[in-house]
Known about the structure:
By secondary structure, the protein is mainly beta. The chain has one helix spanning 2-16, and strands spanning 27-39, 42-56, 60-61, 65-72, 75-79, 85-88, 93-96, 104-107, 114-123, 130-131.
Amino acid sequence: xxxxxxxxxxxxxxxxxxxxxxxxxxxxxxxxxxxxxxxxxxxxxxxxxxxxxxxxxxxxxxxxxxxxxxxxxxxxxxxxxxxxxxxxxxxxxxxxxxxxxxxxxxxxxxxxxxxxxxxxxxxxxxxxxxxxxxxxx
Length: 137
C-alpha cells in the first residue's frame, strides 16, 4: 500500500511542479480556403492567408508539408531555435517541412498586409497546424 501512495505522490509532484507549456495564439490573421482535395492518403488545401500589420500566426508546427508564396508585403518567419529569422518579400517562396522539429512563427512587421498563397499537403484527417509553446528566448 505504501508503494502505491509513493507512486501517486510522485505523479502529483511531477505534474504540479513547474509551469505548463502554453500555446501562443495568433492575432491579426485570416485565411480563405481557395480549394481542397484528397489524393490517396493526403489532404491538399490551398489557402490565401492575410496577416495584418502587427499580426502573427502564433507559434506552431505542421503535420504535413507547406509551400507558400508571398503575394503582398514582407513576411518575417522565425524559428524556435531562437537563431533563424528569414524575411520573404513579394515573389519569394518558402517551405515548411514537417520533419523539421522546430516550431515557427510568421509575423507582419510592416505597415501593409502580408498576403500568402499556401498549399498544405497533410496526412488525411490531420489538422493543417498544431499550436506550440513559445520558445524560451
